[in-house]
Amino acid sequence: MTVRRLLLTSTLACSLGSCGGDSEPAADSEPAADLGPQLLESARAGDATEVRALLGRGAEVESRDSTGATALVAATYGNYVDVARVLVGAGADVNAKDESEQSAYLIATSEVELMLANGAEVDAKDSYDGTGLIRAAERGHAAISGRLVETSIELDHVNRLGWTALLEAIILGEGGERHIEVVRRLVAAGADVDLVDGQGVTPLAHARRQGFSCDRADSRAGRSPRALVVPAPRAIPLRKSGSIVSE
After folding, report:
1. Which residue among 132, 201, 204, 209 has the highest number of C-beta atoms inside a 10 angstrom radius?
2. pLDDT tens for residues 55-98?
3. How many CB atoms lie within 10 A of CB 136?
4. How many CA atoms does the CB half-sphere of 32 hold within 13 Å?
């Protein structure tokens, strides 16, 4: 009876966690909720290795900071493509917006293909009611503009300023090579060269204000019906096909 009682006592003690020799009790793991700020900080710093580690420890991929930005938005602001890939792979929402109405898709530069492949809403709007195409045109991102016009995005959407992507490229580009290429791609895609802004000014008129010379050639003679010309060798054609008119 005494032996049985000792065995029962020993079994009860082990079940309560008192056996195991001199081993130390396991330290409590850090609550996943507390990892959110670290995830955002690492994403903002472009540290893909740490972001991956934090996600592995249970950090919430959609954690937000005081501005409403997710880790993906924070990474995209810094153009940290590797971090963005890690976060998207973990299920980050490419359409989640911060308080300024910016999503990873709308901010994206080199990551735009990643965003499109993971469900980006191509017609999403920012706080100016501008599309991703308008933002790309404003910044002179020709490759992104060219990619976006291949989607279902609204080519001639007008933002709160009364400007289309074409108007933004002309007005804000000031004749720079990057913006000239954006204009080429927009026109080739069918952008409306006669769509006026909020003050009734056409893209052609804005071009003149930027110091470009303009030619209205006769399309029946096989020439461009309308072209915006800058000193050779640069030219911004405001037409869909045909030769570039130069002076």
Report:
1. 132
2. 999 999 999 999 999 999 999 999 999 999 999 999 999 999 99
3. 28
4. 9
CA distance 115 to 48: 17
pLDDT digits (tens, 9 = 90+) for 211-238: 765 554 333 333 343 444 443 334 555 5
The CA distance from 197 to 169, in Å, is 13
Identity of the residue numbered 168: E
Q: Are 84 and 75 in contact (CB under 8 A)?
A: yes
Q: Do 230 and 236 touch, CB atoms closer than 8 A?
A: yes
3-state class of 227 per DSSP? strand
Domains defined along the chain, listed by start = 34-121 (1.25.40.20)
Cα separation values, 192 from 105, 178, 187, Å? 25, 20, 7
User: CA dihedral in degrees (175, 181, 187, 193; nearest 10)?
Assistant: -10
Tell me, rounded to whole angstroms, the distance of Cα 16 from its chain centroid: 54
Rounded Cα distance between 89 and 219, Å, is: 51
Contact 90, 61 (CB under 8 A): yes
pLDDT bin (cut points 50, 70, 90) of residue 210 is confident
How far apart CA 149 and CA 224 sit, in angstroms, is 22
